[in-house]
Structure formats: structure tokens, C-alpha cells
Amino acid sequence: MPFSAAEQRAMEQALQLARGGVRGANPLVGAVILSPSGEVLATGYHRGAGTPHAEAAALTAAATAGTDVRGATMVVTLEPCNHAGRTGPCSQAVLEAGIARVVYAAADSNHDAAGGAAALAAGGVEVEGGLRADESRELNHRWATAAAAHRPFVTVKTAQTLDGRTAAADGSSAWITSGEARADAQALRRRADAVLAGTGTIQADNPRLTARNPDGSDADSQPLRVVMGHSPVPEAARVRGIDGRFLQIPTHDPAVVLADLYDRGVRHLMVEGGGTVAGAFLRAGLADELVAYTAPALLGAGTPAFAGLGIQTMAHIQRWRWDPAGGSSAVPVGPDLRLHLEPLPDFVNEKD
After folding, report:
1. Helix, strand or coil for residue 159?
2. Measuring CA to CA, which residue among 303, 18, 259, 325 is closest to residue 158?
3. Model pTM score
4. Can you state the angle between helices 90-97 and 54-64, rounded to 10 degrees?
5. Catalytic residue IDs
6. Cα separation of 209 and 226, whole Å?
7. Each residue of 25-66: pLDDT tens digit?
């Protein structure tokens, strides 16, 4: 076996760390630094877009503790990246730190970021890959699908009743979920590159679609506010704002929206409203995760959370699974539940 017992234990720890990360524009990654004798020197994981990658987080933790990592081994769940995006290339950071050996699980499937293993080897680092690669790929298969398709990772978010309604029969909808749930959802907005709603939601609710801090103030970094549909957005609509971060895409085709946004640099899209738009992304198979804030309430009739799925028979049912990262699939938020799911692979959705 090319991997020591200490490295195998460290990879288990790195996978657990990775599961604590945030899905979106980047994969879930954990890293553990081992001394030559196999002791854990430092750990780190990627906490979301724009934050240090797992390798950099572990190196920073070691430096903060005054720990010398020269000659150490880094065990990481994904091949270190080899490009400069919002952060610098991890391969270079590892080289500069004097790490002697890198053990990684899965190769990076993102063409723009791949090549870290080769860069490390060229720099004199001993590199070995493949340790528990299947588990790393399983954690990140939806992200890898989006990256390979050159489209943003898509989060569909809803606020609904137990019977899946987002508004009553008369159209009223404020408020189905609690203030705690709405505040929790703002954390999703703050992580997204863009937030999208349909023209129907804009006309009915006149939302701002801005990201706000826990105290209600506007976050320093704002997502692009996107409206999908052909109906004109009124000049006085709050979604337009005054910061220039507003975009209308006159189409009902989610694939067209994603291609446009990807070309604009968007890597994580949050779809917020309403049921027709959410249903369009689900029907097209372009939703990578579903976050459903569910209130312990019933309406019996009204606007469905997901419209136009085109399902007429059980043979075509869409089946989803709880977040495979574990620990966050169903979380109480005030009086409500935050449900976190991802679609099953197509072959599992087929009728038995």
C-alpha cells in the first residue's frame, strides 16, 4: 500500500472536515498536515467562495500556532489547485511552505484548476493520489457536473408550507416562514454570485433580492440580481436598485440563463422565486441542490412550490436524497425546518 496508517486516518479526518464546508462555486475540500512521525500538526477546510482553500487554511492554522511544517505531509481530499482565482494557487502555497509529501483523494476535474499534482512533483514534492477517491468524488459530484458543463452551480431555495405551498389561493404569501428562517436564508444569498427570480415574483412581491447582514443592513458584497422572463421590469421595481447590479434575461429557458451568467463570471446561482421558475430548473435537470425552508403550517390550496414539472405518472417521479455530506439535511430554524437535498443520479430516478 502506498499510504501509511497515519495517512489513511488523516484522510478520514479530511473527509469529515470537507463535509463541514459550504456547497456552491467551489468543491468541498478538507486538509490535514502530518508530521514525519504521523502526528496531526494542523487542519483546515474550505468554508465557501472567496475564502482560503483547505490547503491554505491548514497552512495558516499551522503558522498561527507557530508550527513548522517543513518536511511534513499534507493529506487533502482533492488535488491541490494550480490556478489563481479569488485565491492563489494551492500548489504554490504548498511548495513555498516546504511540504515534502502530498496525498490526495480525487484528481481535480476542473480543467482550469487541474495540474496541481504535476506542479508539485515538478517542484520536488512526493505526490500520491487515489486514497478514498470515490468518497471525495461523491461529495462533489454535483459541483463537478456544473464545472464540466461550464455553468454555475445552482441552488434552488423555497419557503413553503408542509403541503408545498408558497402562497395562499388569494395570492397572499407574507410570511409563511419565520424571521429566523428568513435570516438563515440571507446567509445563502451572501454566498451566491447571483440571485434569480421570475418576472411574476417581481410583479407580485416587488422583492429587493439583496443580501443582508444579520442586523438587517446590506452586506458589503452583493450578488447580481437577475430577473428571468419577458415581461418588462418596472422602472420603480426595488430589484433594480441603484448599484448597477441588476440584469434581466428575457427567456424562459434555464439553460440560456446559465450560459449567459457563466459568461459574466457567475459560478453560484441561487434561484429564489417563484414556483414556475423553480419548476423550470428542476424540469431541465439544472438544479444541483434544493434548500426548502418548511413551516409547520397547511394551506390546502394555493401556489405550488414547484410548478410545471411535467410529471404525469409515477414512472417519471423525480427522486431526491438528503445532503450526502451529512449533518445538515434537516435542521430546525426557529419553528421551521431547513431541508437540504440533492437530486439522485438519473439512473436511480428510473422506475424500478
Report:
1. strand
2. 303
3. 0.85
4. 30
5. 55
6. 9
7. 788 999 999 999 999 999 999 987 778 999 999 999 999 999
